[in-house]
Amino acid sequence: MLNNSQYIEKLRSSGLRPTKQRIKICEVLFNTEKTFHFTINELVKKISKSTNDKISLATVYNTIHAFKNKGYLKEIPINSDQSYFDTNTSHHHHFYDESQRDLIDIDEADVEPVKIYTRIPGKKIKSVEVLVKVEDDKS
Amino acid sequence: MLNNSQYIEKLRSSGLRPTKQRIKICEVLFNTEKTFHFTINELVKKISKSTNDKISLATVYNTIHAFKNKGYLKEIPINSDQSYFDTNTSHHHHFYDESQRDLIDIDEADVEPVKIYTRIPGKKIKSVEVLVKVEDDKS
DNA sequence: CAACAGTTTAGAACAGTTATAATGTAGAAA
DNA sequence: TTTCTACATTATAACTGTTCTAAACTGTTG
Ligand SMILES: [Mn+2]
Ligand SMILES: [Mn+2]
Ligand SMILES: [Zn+2]
Ligand SMILES: [Zn+2]
Q1: What local confidence, expressed as pLDDT, does residue A2 receive?
Q2: Closest-lying ligand to the alpha carbon of A76?
Q3: pLDDT digits (tens, 9 = 90+) for B62-104
Q4: Is the C-beta of residue B59 closer than 7 Å to nucleic acid chain C?
Q5: A73: closest CA among A48, A38, A102, A106?
Q6: What is the mean pLDDT of residues A108-136?
Q7: Does some domain include residue A86?
Q8: Which terminus of chain B has fewer Cβ atoms in its 10 Å neighbourhood, N or C?
Q9: What tens digit of pLDDT does each residue of B24-64 get?
């Protein structure tokens, strides 16, 4: 739940001018009670529903990538079909429901911190992500 | 390190007839000292190097997918650029070197088993995968 | 060996993503 | 406020990895 001047700040700090298209994208992404996961296609649909103006795909991709680079969005690797993004940028893990093709957050407190007893010389750890794939109980 | 009759068995049990193209693919995949990770593109290059016959892309994709479905290969979710596969089908985790775009196995013994204290009603866990992204130490 | 079901293949089609270049606009300067 | 310019938007083309197609080919079975 943010107001316009906060969107403008988010855009400026991502190196983007605050245009009306980008502010609309911000509203859809950040003016929500809860964080959520999305594909670009789903986001574009959400945007069309919430405005009469049409925003081009290129603008959506550009804005999403700028936010991702700035750390205002995370990309979640699921498979190679399409990109999944997350408006929850805190450190957390995921269930992936393969039947529903649905990503679900796992609260940080619900996962024992992952301990890794080996390193790669000359490399430092950037992130540790756990993906728990689930399916219908009966199947 | 397997012999031809073992490849034939792998193919048959995957629902595929043992043709010479598919046996060549088996050799490249399974006739190695160590397991390895690959993209389809890398695999096709490896195949061309090890034979004079050309094997079509469609045959490679079909065979890889049959092996994946049967569990003789695993797909590792990294990003949406392309699919990464693994001839190591045992339960293990990965480092992903973002500078080198390189996947590296983490030995099962080098990761504390991941404990998850929450479940999704009606769903059962299919897999738990840890991806540790690393980058050059200086950067 | 004949017959057929399954296989290979080149290339087309497709989907997601990125690039292009003409037109439009935000914001700064005058 | 008007003018100017760097940056943004857009439609659409290009690109890339993957899947599909349909004709030619081959392994297998009788
Ligand atoms: Mn996939
Ligand atoms: Mn990506
Ligand atoms: Zn999440
Ligand atoms: Zn591996």
Answers
A1: 60
A2: 3
A3: 999 999 999 999 999 998 789 999 999 999 999 999 888 899 9
A4: yes
A5: A38
A6: 93
A7: no
A8: N
A9: 999 999 999 999 999 999 999 999 999 888 999 999 999 99
Are the beta carbons of A118 and B124 separated by less than 8 Å? no
In a shared domain, residues B44 and B16: yes
Nearest-Cα distance to chain A for B124, in Å, is 5
State the pTM of this model: 0.92
A51 lies in some domain: yes
Q: Which domain holds residue A72?
A: 4-76
Rounded CA gap, A102 and A38, in Å? 9
Could you tell me if B130 and B106 lie in one domain?
yes
Protein-to-nucleotide distance from the CA of B72 to the C1' of C5, whole angstroms: 26
- Whole-angstrom distance, CA of residue A84 vs CA of residue B58: 27
Q: Tell whether A97 and A122 lie within a shared domain.
A: yes
From A36, A51, A76, give the residue that closes a domain. Answer: A76
Q: Is A115 helix (H, G, I), strand (E, B) or coil?
A: coil
Classify residue A139: in a domain, yes or no.
Answer: no
CA of B19 to C1' of C1 (A): 21
Helices (H), A14-131: 20-30, 40-50, 57-70
Q: For chain B, give the number of residues.
A: 139
A contact residues 50-89, partner B, Cβ 8 Å cutoff:
75, 77-83
